Amino acid sequence: MAKQNQEHLGVSIQAALTQQEIASLLDALLATLSDELWKQALSQLPLDTQNTLEKIVTPAASVVDTPPVSSVISPAKLAQKWQKLWKEWDKIIDQASEAEGEYIVQEDRWEQPYFDNSSLVENLEKVAEKMRPLIEAAFEHDFSPNTGFVSVLLEAESAISASLPDWMEMMDGIHLEFHVTNCLLQWEWLTAKYEQQEPFQFVQRIQELEQEFEHISLDDDQIIAFLCELPDNEQQSILAELNIHQQGVTWKGLLSDVHSHWHMFYTHLLEKYGKPEIYLDYLRVTIPKRWENSLPIIEAFLKQQDYSSSLTVIQEALASLVENYQVDKSWKPENALLNLSNYQVSTISYQSLKHLLDYYQQTSQGLGQTERANALSIQITALDYYNDWSSMFKAFTEVEVSTVTRQALFNSWRDYLLKGSVDTKKWWLAWLLESIFDPQLGSAWFQQQIQQWFINLPADEKLVGDDYDALHLLTTDVIEIYDKGKSSYPKFEQVLTKGHNIYTSPNEDSRRAYLQKYAPDNLWELTINYWRWHLHLFIPQPELAQNSDYRESARWMFALEELAPKTYQKILAEWRVKHVRRRNLWKVLPQT
Asked: What pLDDT digit, counting tens, does each position of 468-492 carry?
């Protein structure tokens, strides 16, 4: 081979061939090289490159943890990837810092533009996900850029804020997610170790950094996860320092705030490394703000069979629950169900509530309070099976409580299912529940009540409120039960369900199963005949239509045509005279 321009031959080959072709060339050359020539060629390369090639060509097969060939990459290649990723990052920040960049969004012409922080965070997160595996190598080999993530984010925050018009604010801030937060934490931790800082100094650095950001916030969950994965000795060191500083100006507020991630991390440290009595005493102080913190304390007292102390803490937890989640202050296990509709499921742990009631039951049993313990058994069943009628009725029947307690808990559950209906005496749903609950009433009583209800049901515009809601719910259930998907009256079903989803709930399967079991044989005829005789009274009148939009009137007319063709023809004839000049009406209704 000619030696001319040999020093630039590799560059020329790289420019002329594809990666696959270069790979094939290397395979061919390596196959012809003797061990001596391979070592000679290798010795002319940088040490890092030599080490990388050695791992690829002669992998240590006996070492279990040896990475696969595809994961062996030279530091130079990693540095190249690192720089490429930072260019992607910078491009995103540059766009976010432009007054009319892609992150300034205007949904409609008449709406004010806004800064799309969620898209910005999402795009940064994609880049950071690729950066995470490179952090240690980038720090160790001093890849450029090597300033870390803090200064970059502070500069980005300032540039973005300066680019926004005075009237446009970052109302929700920029909440960084998992990968970006992890990259920042990794880099700061490596820096702290390099500078031989104590673990608590790293913790203080992160806490101070949170205050330094004006619009940016880190991912709280990732901070906790990162700290909890530190070696045990370093977590213990952090705990010792937090114990010293917990009454200081900075940490007192953070550690006492039950919603703070620093409180959660400190609680984790106390539980894992602290003395049990100190951990439980710390939790007890926080019960008024976070009732769930009572659970480990109650559990400890139950193990000691100290039921009196357990009850005291339970009462503290219930007081917190009442205060923070608008539970009835007079609540007792015997007088009402502590149901899921009384508080926000998203902000309170269902499992924690179940544990509390379970501990309350164990405590009541230990104190010999059998009635209360059994009432709590029904309470616990209700948490799991509120919408399962068969399970609830089984609990009401089989759990031994007084008649007064059983009736009170049933009334509480019934009122929940009725969703606060003003007069339960007018509701067929209430009658159905009562006929199941009381065997002396049974299906015969329910059938009598619903037959009479249809007789007394108003047949004009007075059918509003509870009456209409009751009829609407019954009709949808009857169609589902008896029509069995045949859609005998599809247009009627359409107007009935449009815009009216009252009582669609997880308990509808149970409700319909019991309705079918207890209903009179002619319930389908009773229901459809009511609508057949009275549907015309519910049709929206054309003169009340807004902006000459008669489509709703037409939909009801078509439903009437299905159920009562003669009545439909009669009203259509009346409308042809009365509304002859409403041209838009006759565009949606037939002329003949």
From this structure: 888 888 998 998 888 776 778 889 9
